[in-house]
Design brief:
The structure is a single chain. The protein is mainly α and 139 residues long. The protein is 73% helix and 0% strand. The chain contains 7 helices and no strands. Helix 5 packs across helix 7. The protein is elongated and about 70 Å long. The N and C termini lie far apart (71 Å).
């Protein structure tokens, strides 16, 4: 029984620490890129927990964290998108940045993708279409 007690105490302690860390962050609608490291560190911590340990994180804390994580991924995506010229001004020199943005999007889970606005996604597809057009002209 001692082993189970230690495992239980550790799980409860980790869940409480996780909850406290989530509580220190602003609400998702007030989140900025300044909190990127904090949110990414929390994701690393959460993903490093066993399913048993994760089970001690209450549903409200988990829902808040999922929203913060998705919002942050959206902010990172939109920031990267803003660094790329518009489709009208795009050149083949921007191809790698556009490909990196697509790779970023494709690496998101289905839930995380719901945080990316339709407008941002449409901008990405427009950039990809423009790159394809520029490549055809370059042939």
């Amino acid at each position: 029984y001692q082993v189970a007690d230690t495992e239980y105490m550790e799980a409860v302690s980790l869940a409480e620490a996780f909850k406290a860390s989530v509580a220190k962050l602003p609400d998702a609608d007030k989140l900025t890129l300044a909190y990127q490291t904090d949110v990414e560190n929390l994701a690393t911590v959460y993903n490093g927990l066993t399913s048993y340990q994760q089970s001690y994180i209450d549903s409200d804390t988990l829902a808040t964290f999922v929203k913060l994580d998705g919002t942050m991924k959206s902010l990172v995506f939109d920031n990267a998108l803003s660094q790329i010229p518009s489709a009208d001004e795009l050149t083949l020199e921007n191809k790698e940045a556009v490909e990196a943005l697509r790779k970023n999007y494709d690496s998101l889970t289905t839930t995380e993708k719901t945080y990316i606005s339709k407008n941002s996604y449409d901008q990405l597809t427009a950039l990809e279409a423009k790159i394809a057009e520029l490549e055809k002209k370059a042939e």
